[in-house]
TrEMBL record:
First and last residues of every WD repeat: 1-34, 60-93, 103-144
Polar residues composition-biased segments: 351-362
Record PANTHER family: MEMBER OF THE HIR1 FAMILY OF WD-REPEAT PROTEINS (PTHR13831), PROTEIN HIRA (PTHR13831:SF0)
Presence of keyword Repressor: yes
This protein's record includes keyword Phosphoprotein: no
Gene Ontology CC entries for this record: chromatin; HIR complex; nucleus
Sequence ranges assigned to domain CAF1B/HIR1 beta-propeller in this UniProt record: 2-140
Family membership noted in the UniProt record: Belongs to the WD repeat HIR1 family.
Name under which the protein is recorded: Protein HIRA
Annotated Gene3D superfamilies: YVTN repeat-like/Quinoprotein amine dehydrogenase
Domain Protein HIRA-like C-terminal: 588-689, 721-770
Function: Required for replication-independent chromatin assembly and for the periodic repression of histone gene transcription during the cell cycle.
GO biological process, one term: chromatin remodeling
Length: 827
């Protein structure tokens, strides 16, 4: 699941479990669904395979900044997303990707979102020291809570608030009471704030209620209570029962860094927590510790007594209901006293009775019923093209229609056949003149969302870090890696070519007063610019290593620091005077003199003992700090477009010290020092991939099991050639990446495919190359190598012949090479 172009900040399951939503720094929200494809090999993953195949069924675009939190409504009808653009967006999940509301009011980054389990409210928490509650009936603000947050200093990466399962309480993150950090309890009745959870030493980052209501035992009916988990920046986790005045359990120093998110299982007895240090903790309870689960029927009865009439279904159990507190919430759904309301949706009519049952069915859209015709300056007729979204995949459409036969008529064909009635599309002629190749300026045709996404991605880094003051997120590529970690630093650097070589091609970063960089083994690095003045308008700048809350060492530098990254070996910092400095993590001793860069650094990466830097001029350098040698010095401007629309999204360093770069145009490159050039490893938009039958092979190398995506190529011969070309492309990339296991998988897949297609000549050529020369005078022996990627070619030939033997038509070819291979082995 690698469609995101930048860091993923949040994932949330729908209540039904059918969808998974993800939001990230690329400003996008993606909706994923499990398909019936076999698991596929992970490209570049060293032989690892996906057990399941998840497909992105919809991409929600609308935010202008990083997406930090997501929340599904109780009935899965809506999805709320919060962003650093100070807004909350509400998405209609019955008609993806429609955005039905934008909730504006926050003046800071919105870092948390939570739905009322009753369905009447949605709450959001922001860096502006407020919690705002919005009504779902008209999406207007119900109330704003400010008092518990007025004393709060600084900020946290996330502010994940949560509602109690009975809907009576909303618990927020990062509040203060008497100078100490608390989790504020906000009562539904009057929005009072006179209770809180106390005890943590640092700011609260996340709160998560168990979705079940609990009781001590079956004998204690009527004495229900709730269970709440709280995570903090003090690396600890506390579990509270509303029936107790003190926490049930407190786990200190569970992680090496701040807790970022919490999630309860549906059974209510398992809890998972994740941290900024990259680890996940699993905690299991039993009914003696938490209590017994209140049944769904009892919970429904309680809701009906507390709030009133029941309404749409929630969660996995479709018999459960969300109730309605306000008649105004029901009124918009009613059209007449006895006639069910009918809603028109892109090619069909949907009754309100069946609306809840198809909570997430995707309707295939056909062409619009009107096109616009204009004339060019030379008198030629021009019809403005209209973007038509692709159809649903056949297997997904069948599975969704099988659950609701009555809704099968909703999906209309995109194009009519010759037996159907003539097209009803109306062509509107306009008296306008357009230039050849350009659409009219007054055209109302929507542009493809892919084009808009690329334009929006071109300035992710600059708009996020130069226009916004956020200390913890204002430094480019603050990433750490362990001795064997291969984490990818997401940068989002927009690159464009400068007509003047003296001018920078990437805007450099501004200097921040202070920032912190988390590292492994409990370390973090604190940067404080202008920490000590030594004369008139002269200051030094401090880099500190903090180990488990204590300062291990300090270093002063003469230029302000703008970037920092660390591994277990060294920590590197870049300064505003275009210099790079490297220090030993253990004692802070300088490893090399300061390196003068070509220009200010905009991307810094440290992995093991390798340090890579991209400068504002587009130059990339990689150094081996231990060996004190350069492994790469080249430019990345040749990998980008001249208009700056291509964004550098990730960078990692191979064991050889050479980088692997990924860009927003879905292309991935690595550098070859032997050939002295960049090599294209992968392209997700490659037409060969879309036209190939081998685009989704399983871990075993099979491609014929289960339904697969239909190729866009109709000609059978062209499809075969396209498939073989795609396999060769993958194998060449895997050979460059030195991945023998994946290379073998693709080789066997290619052989199996060629055997099924009866490509005897191609198979013979392949077998001859794997067999090698049978005697010294053979012409094949001059440049033949006995191994490939440390694998013996004769051993690969033995496996290839086993695959070919499954096709009876290839028995003669198999026998011929088996005999030759046997002779070579005996000789």
């Amino acid at each position: 699941m690698d469609n995101h172009l930048a860091c993923v900040n949040c994932v949330r399951w729908s209540n039904s479990g059918q969808y998974l939503a993800s939001g990230g720094d690329d400003k996008l929200v993606m909706i994923w669904q499990l398909t019936r494809y076999a698991g596929s090999t992970i490209f570049g993953g060293g032989g690892k395979t996906n057990i399941e195949h998840w497909r992105c069924v919809s991409t929600l675009r609308g935010h202008s900044g990083d997406v930090l939190d997501l929340g599904w409504s109780p009935d899965d009808q809506y999805l709320a997303s919060s962003s650093v653009d100070n807004t909350v967006r509400i998405w209609n999940m019955l008609n993806m990707p429609e955005s039905i509301a934008v909730l504006k009011g926050h003046t800071g980054l919105v870092k948390g979102i939570a739905w009322d389990p009753i369905g009447k409210y949605v709450a959001s928490q922001s860096d502006d020291k407020t919690v705002r509650v919005w009504k779902t009936s008209d999406w207007k603000q119900e109330t704003v809570v400010t008092e518990p947050f007025e004393e709060c200093g600084g900020t946290t990466h996330v502010l994940r608030l949560n509602w109690s399962p009975d809907g009576q309480y909303l618990v927020s993150a990062h509040a203060m009471n008497g100078g100490g950090p608390t989790a504020q309890i906000i009562e539904r009745d009057g929005w009072k704030t006179d209770k809180d959870f106390v005890g943590h030493r640092k700011a609260i980052t996340c709160v998560s209620f168990n979705s079940n209501m609990l009781r001590k035992s079956a004998l204690h009916k009527g004495t229900n209570y709730c269970c709440c988990a709280i995570g903090s920046r003090d690396r600890s986790l506390s579990i509270w029962l509303t029936s107790l005045k003190r926490p049930l359990v407190v786990i200190h120093e569970l992680f090496l860094n701040s807790v970022l998110d919490l999630s309860w299982s549906r059974s209510g007895y398992q809890l998972m927590a994740c941290s900024w240090d990259g680890s996940v903790a699993y905690i299991e309870f039993d009914d003696k510790e938490l209590g017994q689960i209140v049944s769904v029927e009892e919970k429904e009865n309680l809701f009906q007594r507390m709030y009133g009439k029941k309404s749409f279904s929630t969660g996995v159990d479709k018999k459960a209901s969300v109730v309605i507190e306000d008649p105004d919430w029901i009124q918009p759904q009613l059209v007449g006293p006895s006639v069910p309301s009918v809603i028109e949706e892109d090619g069909g009519m949907l009754s309100s009775d069946s609306r809840a049952s198809r909570t997430s069915q995707i309707v295939a859209k056909g062409p619009t019923d009107k096109q616009i015709e204009t004339r060019t300056v030379d008198g030629r007729r021009r019809i403005t093209p209209v973007f038509i979204p692709p159809l649903m995949e056949e297997d997904d459409a069948q599975s969704s229609h099988a659950s609701n036969h009555s809704s099968a008529a909703l999906v209309q064909p995109t194009f009519s056949s010759s037996t159907e009635s003539r097209s009803k599309i109306v062509v509107e002629k306009r008296d306008e003149v357009t230039k050849p190749g350009l659409s009219s300026t007054t055209s109302t045709s929507p542009s493809p969302p892919q084009v808009n996404a690329r334009k929006e991605m071109s300035n992710i880094l600059l708009s996020r870090r130069l226009e916004r003051n956020e200390p913890e997120r204002s430094v480019v590529s603050i990433r750490t890696s362990g001795s064997s970690a291969a984490s990818v630093a997401t940068t989002g650097i927009s690159i464009f070519r400068s007509p003047d070589s003296d001018k920078v091609a990437i805007a450099p970063l501004s200097v921040q007063k202070s920032f912190s960089v988390p590292a492994s083994c409990g370390r973090s690095f604190e940067i404080e610019n202008q920490s000590y003045f030594v004369g008139h308008k002269m200051a030094v700048h401090k880099l500190s290593c903090v180990m488990h809350g204590k300062v291990a060492w300090d270093i002063f530098l003469s230029s302000p620091m703008i970037g920092c990254a660390a591994s277990v070996y060294c920590v590197a910092v870049t300064c505003s005077d275009a210099t790079l400095h490297c220090f030993a993590v253990g004692d802070g001793s300088r490893m090399i003199p300061g390196i003068k860069l070509q220009g200010p650094a905009v991307h810094l990466r440290v992995q093991d003992h390798f340090v890579s830097v991209v400068t504002a001029h587009g130059q990339m350098n990689v150094w081996d700090i231990i060996k004190r040698k350069s492994t790469l010095k080249t430019s990345i401007l040749s990998l980008t477009d001249s208009d700056g629309s291509v964004t550098l999204t990730s960078c990692t360093i191979r064991d050889t010290g050479l980088p692997i770069l990924s860009f927003s145009n879905s292309k991935t490159y690595t550098y070859s020092t032997d050939m002295d050039t960049w090599l294209l490893l992968a392209d997700a938009m490659d037409p060969l991939r879309n036209g190939s039958d081998l685009q989704g092979i399983s871990s075993s190398g099979s491609f014929g099991s289960g339904p697969s995506r239909s190729s866009v190529i109709n000609n059978a011969d062209s499809k075969i050639i396209c498939s073989i070309s795609y396999a060769d492309l993958k194998m060449s990339a895997l050979a460059e990446l030195n991945s023998p296991a994946e290379y073998r998988t693709w080789l066997m897949t290619k052989v199996k495919y060629m055997a099924q297609q009866g490509m005897e000549d191609r198979l013979r050529s392949l077998c001859e190359d794997l067999l090698g020369p049978v005697h010294r005078s053979s012409q094949r022996g001059k440049n033949w190598q006995p191994t490939i990627l440390t694998m013996k070619k004769n051993d690969l030939l033995h496996q290839v012949l086993q695959v070919m033997a499954t096709n009876v038509k290839m028995q003669r070819l198999c026998t011929e090479f088996q005999q030759q291979l046997k002779m070579l082995t005996e000789f």
